[in-house]
Amino acid sequence: MNKLLVLYTSPIRKTTSASTLALDDFITNYKHTNPEDEITVMDLNEDVALEKNLTSQNFLDYYGDGVADKYIEIFNKHDKIVFATSTINFKPSPVFISLINRITIARKTFNMVFDAVQQKTVSAGKFVGKKAHVLITMGSIPEEDIKKHMIDSVKIPLEFIGFDVSVTLLEGMDVGGSPEKKLTRDQKIKPYENRIADAAIKF
Fold this sequence. Notes:
single chain, alpha/beta, Rossmann fold, five-stranded parallel sheet, two-stranded antiparallel ribbon
């Protein structure tokens, strides 16, 4: 039995968020494939501590207020983590970025070590052996370099602290609607149901 942590991060209201619905569908399929697994669900938007940005004014206190330790402990207790994030200005959701900032700490969640084989310094992350999957929704169907940028923006930080990361990109969420009649979130997700199910089954 594995322990799965489910993290919602979209700033869009739950009733209209496509990424939230995508994660709901992911969990439904995951439960069907892994009925014995223990699942913990958290909405990071509900943690006011993650609203705090790292600045020169709070740098000394930012990592000492217990928030990082709380999430590191939560991560330690789970084998797998799945996130869902909307794309906000070509970046993951602010609360996703805030969480990454909180838990990426030298000598706590990563160490820089010299790899004799590669002959270079690399990160040795704390969470080696744990898996993470990220569902990303995008309103448009962007060029390949932008898709890569979005995937890298979630994948690289998580790999840096040791996770084995996979990503499902769901683009074109706002393609097909009109100013007069926007697509519902169910209509947005419908074309990707099989892709979401496949990702959940493989995870």
